[in-house]
Each structure stands twice: as structure tokens, then as C-alpha cells.
């Protein structure tokens, strides 16, 4: 039994596999092993919260991919991948988190049995889930193989989105708008932050009319006041306070596709420096959107953003965005292009980014961001349509 | 500025550090680098969703730990760790997900500058977040160092919980009860699963009177009918169906501490084989709890569980539990002991486990589980107090 309902057409999976095989050939890779759950899903459809144990897919140049994982998760693979049953293989449970044996011993045996024991094997060396020990075990079990660093090889193939993918990202964007609208509307001083987070999750998961909500790859981030200086603090049991800003960094998620959106809410009268920062930031966003065009480079967006910020005396010291799409925890970015000085990647139609110039200063923070799509012609399209400003409740 | 409100007393952090230093000495480790966010938090208090970039803590035998991470996350470290400001160090943002440079180059320089460039350095070789590339970069940057595999070295120190930790786990257990109660009460055939998940998140995050809810390390799992054969499928947009079982695998989370709990709900009249499985499973759980005593071994629980299941003709083919406590995604287990045949770890008072004998058969599933505490005397205490049975709604 292969999956009865796949999220994408067979043509779409064929397109992805073909792109990947061309990249393998260019890199001189005979066999590619992928442990990144996003890459696994993108190529095979596999979907499940099983990435806390070793698993992966093997990509061949001349036969269908093989899903490989823990025995109990093979049932999930049968239900979600497009390949036929015999392309799903597994290792016995006593290899799971064992102090005596390693699942990569089983994978190595599979690789040998397929005739690739002395071939060039691509591995995602800098990726969550593929550990140092996994690499060392493969190295020791396959002494005749040549290992090639294939970090982000598939991630790069994901940069330009297909029409089918864009349908999903747009649905995620509708959910993002709903989450932000709800947060801005409901938040009042004295409200417990957990009550607000609960409502934000409710919006995220119920979704919108034609799109149910999946879990986003990052939990909602909404630090307040001085804590908003720290971009990655999560919530706590305290109440929302007057005379403080809270930013909302969230993403709707539809079939694992994301469209992050951040807005900031101030209770009371914002200090002058924050209003000035808002003005410079919005100006920078608009300047960045204007140059976010096919043919320009990723760094052009960063440079356009930086000019008004510099004039306002603000040094962000951080990149201003990253590609988005299909993702699993812990990151909704694709880990390829960075919107920052020095990244000369040429923008192509169909690329999607979170244009994310968060300001995290010593004791305050401000986030106003956009998920964007690079178009054939003209400036970037913002995937969400919400006022680009600091929201204020007196 | 160090954190104004720490989740634990200074004595508790001292206890943990002391235990870890003894383990380092036993393993012949001069300097320990930890990238596991759970180990980072357990030893320093650090809390933030920043583990999608390289970061970690350095543990010395004779000076306070150093938090090391991305520049923008240093603000979060200042606000959450017990160490003083100068023990928080960072790398510049252009190292983040760069194709040209690696954060471990900066860490290596820090290690050299502290005088450990030719010492024995412990690394978590088989851990999420510490990648193969991180290891290879350290190896190349520190050619005179000797690297020691310190996988799970700190995780093992976490096995026996302190009184302070047990307070948190018991709070998490109250939240777990609330989530399960709500799910069992609200679920009816025809209800959209996302509406149910939204309510489950609401219960999880609002928490109970004296405990707000944090995000659990695993999202709620609640596959139905044939899909319940696959333990790690997440939800979708479909409606709950009659004549099918849905299991709820969830955990409340308080200050990152977990107490997972699973129950199963059947709409209609369950088939005879499922009632027989329920009977054997409950019998096995009771037999397991009875031998889950200080002085017995982890495998004794697995063997006690297996006997009634075997009599009912059920071969699970999977381990039956793992230690629980402080955790970050993607796993709420501690990845040390496994409740399974062959694991002869002796049980000690204060150890906590998710006793998790899920049944995932070819086209159905049944989960009835308990989070347990090993006591000084007598059988294990179940941390949640809910009927141990298959729930049925006619």
C-alpha cells in the first residue's frame, strides 16, 4: 500500500527527483542519503514526527528512492510516501537509542547490498538529525566508500517553488494573517500571555476555510518589553504589561509549508526612539521589496534595507531573511540563501523568502516582517496583506 | 545581568554541575562541550528556541560554564542563565548558516584561548544539533586536541530527579491529565480533528491553577483507525469517524519538564480483538508497575509486561519506555535507559519513566501508558491518576 492521498501530483515528485538527480550528477554523487525531514518529505511525501530517531531516504540515479527508518515508523511511511511498499525498509527496534549498536550499521548493510559499498555517497554533514556518530559509523562500516558533503544539496533544489507549492504557501499565508489579526485584536494589558498563546494556537490549527492548520516548525515567539531584545525567548505565565512592546513572530503552516509574519504591538504611548525605529524599518522594508526582483542579488535586499536604518543610527548586526517553504522543526528556513551583505545569489522568479529585519536592541525589540515571492517582473509580492506598522493600543 | 528569576535554586545547579564534573573526571574529560539544548538548560538554565543554529555550553572542572551561541541569542542567555554576564560569549551573525565559514571555527578559537587546545574534549557525538560537520570542523581546527565521545554523559546524570525537579514533573502531570480529560470529553464522531487539537493545545498552554503550560517537546499525536498503526502520524483536516479507535499521545509541559500520558478512545462497539488486547495490555502494565522498583532492572519491567501480551498472541517488537524529564524538541525522552529486554540498568529511587507499551499493529493501534516514578520502597508511583483502560463512546 502506498499513500492513498498524496499532497502533490506524481509529476511534481518526478520534477523534484529529476532536479535532485541532476544536482547529484554535477556533484559526482552516486547515492544520496538524506536525513533532513524536510528533504525526505519534499522528495517522497513522508510525513511524521519520527525524526527523533535515525531515519532517512536513499536517492538513486536509476531507481525509486528507498525510505529507511525504525520498524514502527514503516507503517507511517506506507501511509505517506508515493513509492511502493517494497521501497520502505526498516531497522529493528533494539537499535533505537542503544548504547551498544547504531542504526547506521543497518543502513551500511543496505547500501552494500545495493552495490554502493565502494561508490561516492552524498551525506548531509551539517544538518540536524545526521549526527557526528552517524557519520563515523558509516565511515567505519563502509571503508571503501567515498563520502561527499551534500549539505543543503536538496535544500538548494527547493529554492524556486512550483505552482503547486505556491498554492500551499499562499494558504499558509492566510493562516498567518488570521493568527496575527487574532493576536493584535485580543491582546490587552493584564491578559495572561498563555491565554493569548492558546488562542494563537487555536487560530493556527483550525486554519482557514479551505486550509486546516499543521504545526509550524517554530513555536510562537512573543517576548515583551525588555525581553523583546532576545529574539528566541518563548512565553511564560506572566501577564501582558502596559507601556511595553510585544512582538509576535509566527507562521501559519499548511501541509508543512510556511509563510512567517511578524508584527509588534505597543500598549500605551510608544517612546520616540521606537517610533523613529518603526519609520526607518518600514522605509527599509519598502526599499528592500522594491529591489527584491528577479535578476538582482540577495545582498541587494539587505543593502536597500540597511540604508534608512543606518541613517536612523540602527546597526542590526544580523541577516535580514532566509528562504521559506516546506519545513519541520526546529527551523522554518531552508538554510541556503541569506539576505545579507556578501550573499550574491541571484534572485529567481518563484523564490520565497521571509524578509526578516528584526530589531533586537539592548533592552527592546521591534519586528515588522514580510514573507515574499520573487516575481517574473516587478518588485516582490508580499504573501500576507497586513498593515506594515507598529500597532498601538492606548 | 544574569537571570532575575531562575527556575531552580543555586544549590540545585551546583548539585548538577558537581555530578557532571565527577562524570567528566571518570571519563577523563578536561572540557565538555554540550550542544543538546536539554543538557544546556539543565546545567545553566538557558531557555530559548535558538537550537536551530549552532550553540552550546562549555563545562570546565574549575570555573563556571560558558554559554556560547549566536550574537542575537546572547540577549536570551543573559536573561535565563545563572552565570554572570562575562560567561556569555557569542559568534558574529555572518557565521549563521554560511556556505563559507562555520561557527565551530569561532568555538575552536575560544577553546584555544582558554588553554584547552591540546586537552581531552568531550563531545556529544550522537545528538541532534551537533552535526558531523561541527565535529569535522573542530577536528581540523584543534589538531592537538583529543576528542572523547561524551554522548549522553549529561543525560545519564539527569536520570535520578531531585525534589525540585519532581515538583515540576508533578505539575506537568496535572496538565497531562487536563489534556487527556478534555480530549476524551470533547471528541465525538463528526468533529474535525483540528478542532479537537486546538482545544488540546489550549488546555496544554493555559495549564492548571498553579502551573502555566510550556510547549511540549513533541506535538500531540492522535491518529485514528487504520492510521493508528503508525505511532508518529500527526493530525489532518479530516473528521473523527465512528467505529474506529483514536489514541491520544500527549504530554503536559511545565518549565520544560514532561509527564507523557496516552489513552485511546473508541467510537462504537470495539471489536473483540481490541478488547482482548486492552485486557492483556492493562494486565501487562500492572505487572510492569509491580516490578518497577528500586533494585530491579529496566528489563524486568519489559519482561513483566511481555508475559500477558504473549499469552494474548501480541508481539510488540518495540521497547516499552524511556526516561523522561526536562526536554526540548524533537524528543521528550532522555535517550539513556530503555525499558526493554537486555537493558540491565538498575532502577533507583527518583528515576522517572514513560512506561509506554504502545501497540501498533498492521491496521490498528492502542495506547494506554503511564508516566512513573521509582520510589524508595514499593511499586512505582504513577504520576497521573486516570483510569487505565480503553475509553468507549457508544
Automatic annotation (TrEMBL), chains A, B:
The segment(s) forming the Peptidase M24 domain are: 169-376
Which InterPro entries does the record associate with it? Answer: Creatin/AminoP/Spt16_N, Creatinase/aminopeptidase-like, Creatinase_N, Pept_M24, Peptidase_M24B
| A Pfam family per the record | Creatinase_N
Q: Which domain of life is it from?
A: Bacteria
**Domain named Creatinase N-terminal: which ranges?**
16-160
Instruction: List the PANTHER family.
Output: AMINOPEPTIDASE, XAA-PRO AMINOPEPTIDASE P-RELATED
Protein name as it appears in the record = M24 family metallopeptidase
**Organism expressing this protein natively:** Roseibium polysiphoniae
**Organism classification:** Bacteria, Pseudomonadati, Pseudomonadota, Alphaproteobacteria, Hyphomicrobiales
